[in-house]
Every structure is written in structure tokens, then in C-alpha cells.
UniProtKB/TrEMBL annotation:
Region (Disordered): 122-160
Transmembrane segments: 12-34, 40-58, 84-101
Protein name (Swiss-Prot/TrEMBL): Permease
Domain DUF1980: 9-116, 166-293
Keywords, ordered alphabetically: Membrane, Transmembrane, Transmembrane helix
Alphabetized InterPro entries for the sequence: DUF1980, DUF1980_C, DUF1980_N, UPF0703_membrane_permease
Keyword Transmembrane helix: yes
PANTHER family per UniProt: UPF0703 PROTEIN YCGQ
């Protein structure tokens, strides 16, 4: 493979990444991969790929460049098979991005990642300074929580959902019906799991896809959505258990809207919220299936 072939292929790869990023931006599919707060980095990458691709393409018409004085030659591999094998490592992701950019995570991935409350156990216990509690596989989900949402437990080195979402906690404490939407989905789920007894008896409306834990009874499901903090690699399912005979009619990955009442239940030695089902119906899959973590860290300042 000659030098100008290498330069041409490299320019095509760089411009291919540029076009892929532009396509994701125009179609809105970029939100299938990153959280909105990461968009500035995305725009920076788009501009860099465009500049590098254009510069590489223009180099193709030049003769052999002068020596740079670094005491070694800048040569290109003459082996076509070896070169193409390396370039395919970059070409295949570009082609895959154009073909499968609308793919989103569902119940099959949820089974591998696990129901979100199982992840809370790890992050919470790792922050507790009591070695006895750290060695427990099952136990109290959080240390003792202060009475008011503004009285944070930061002095103990533990940040609770009530500390992170004080405004949402006040709203949920006063409203008769808890409505989950794209903006408050993660905060509401976290607060319900933190204090299920506080919100027991309140009406609730939630939308999400159907997911079943392997050890669930047939009349129980999780209705939830994938939450993203930074990018899809850190996505985890946020949801609430739903109990009722009507759930038998819905397969996994079906998008539903659930109306019911918040109750509490024990699951794997955890005291968790569960929805006592009033009504349920299938809905269309939303254009944006993920919800995004947005924390105002100014709320955590003392």
C-alpha cells in the first residue's frame, strides 16, 4: 500500500467520524450515548475531527514531506493486509454508528446490570466508616437520616437523596399525587427508596418499560427507565416494583403507564417502595427513552 493510499484512508476515517457526530447531533440520537451536560465536549470533538480530517485530506496531493529532524523515518506500512486490518478497527465503529445509532438499552441489559437498588447498597456502604457495617452483605440501606431535608448528614460523610434533592423532597411531601417525568424521574425514585414509609399511601403515576427480576412472582414487575449520569456506559435502571394481576398481560420491554398507590414491601431483606396497582395501559415508546442525572451541588454546601 502506497503513501497516498494511507493518507486517503486516514482522511476518510476522520471525516467519517465527523459525519457520524454531525448525524447524531442533527437526529438527536446523540442523547442515546451521552447526557446533555456532556454536549460541550461533543461539539469540541466534532470541530477537532473536522479540522484533522480536512488537513489529512489536503496532504494527499503533496510530495514526500521534508524530514522533521527527529532522527528516524516516518514510513508507512507496505503490507496491504496489515494496514487494512488496522484501519478496519476504526472503519467498523463508524459504519456501526450510522446503521445502529437509534438502538437503546432495554430489559436484556437491565438483567445484566441489575435493579438499581442493588447498586445503592455498594455506594452507600462504601461511605460508612463503620467496618462492621461494611462487612455486612445485607442490612440497613442508609445510616440514620436527619429529620428535615435541609439538615444534611454531610458531617457524617454520607450524602443522602434528601440532601441531593431537597426541593423535590418538599414537593413530594406536600403533593397528594406523585407524578414522575423526565426531569424528576431519578430524584423521585431515589427519594422513594430512601424513605418508602414517608410516601406510603400517596397516589403515583409512572411511565417506563417492563422488567422482571428472575425471582419475582408472576404478578410483580419493575416499571423503570435507564438513567444516565455521564454516558451510556454508566447507565443503570431506575424503577419501582408494581404488584397486581394485570401485569401478567405485559411482556418485558413493553412501555406502560401505571397508576397506583405507594406501599412498602420487603425484597431481598430490603424495605422498598412498591406500587399497589390501580390501572395500567400500554403506551408508545418515547423518542427519548433515557433520563439524566442532574444534581445541583450547591445544595450540598454547608
Amino acid at each position: 500500500m502506497k503513501r497516498h493510499h494511507h493518507i486517503f484512508i486516514r482522511s476518510v476515517i476522520l471525516l467519517g467520524f465527523t459525519l457520524l457526530l454531525f448525524k447524531l447531533m442533527v437526529t438527536g440520537n446523540i442523547y442515546n450515548y451521552i447526557a446533555p451536560k456532556m454536549l460541550p465536549y461533543f461539539y469540541f470533538a466534532l470541530i477537532v475531527f473536522m479540522i484533522l480530517g480536512g488537513r489529512q485530506f489536503l496532504r494527499g496531493d503533496r510530495e514526500q514531506e521534508a524530514a522533521c529532524g527527529c532522527n528516524h523515518e516516518h514510513t508507512y506500512s507496505t503490507s496491504t493486509i496489515k494496514s487494512l486490518s488496522i484501519y478496519l478497527l476504526f472503519i467498523i465503529p463508524v459504519i456501526s454508528g450510522f446503521l445502529f445509532s437509534e438502538h437503546t438499552l432495554g430489559a436484556s441489559v437491565a438483567k445484566k446490570k441489575g435493579y438499581q437498588f442493588a447498586q445503592i447498597e455498594e455506594t452507600t456502604e462504601s461511605r460508612v466508616d463503620n467496618p462492621t457495617e461494611n462487612n455486612q452483605q445485607e442490612g440497613v440501606k442508609q445510616p440514620e437520616v436527619p429529620a428535615g431535608p435541609d439538615e444534611t448528614s454531610l458531617e457524617n460523610g454520607v450524602i443522602t437523596p434528601k440532601d441531593m434533592y431537597p426541593d423535590r423532597y418538599k414537593e413530594m411531601s406536600t403533593e397528594e399525587k406523585i407524578m414522575l417525568n423526565d426531569d424528576n424521574y431519578i430524584s423521585t425514585i431515589n427519594l422513594l427508596e430512601e424513605e418508602p414509609e414517608t410516601f406510603a399511601g400517596k397516589s403515583i403515576v409512572i411511565r417506563g418499560f417492563v422488567y422482571r427480576e428472575p425471582n419475582f412472582p408472576s404478578s410483580r414487575i419493575v416499571v423503570g427507565r435507564f438513567g444516565v449520569s455521564c454516558c451510556v456506559a454508566d447507565a443503570g435502571i431506575y424503577g419501582i416494583m408494581v404488584e397486581g394481576e394485570q401485569v401478567l398481560n405485559y411482556n418485558e420491554d413493553t412501555w406502560i403507564e401505571v397508576h397506583g398507590t405507594v406501599q412498602t414491601a420487603m425484597f431481598n431483606d430490603w424495605h422498598l417502595p412498591i406500587i399497589e396497582l390501580s390501572s395500567i395501559h400500554e403506551i408508545n415508546k418515547p423518542k427519548q427513552t433515557y433520563v439524566y442525572e442532574e444534581i445541583d451541588y450547591s445544595n450540598l454546601e454547608q
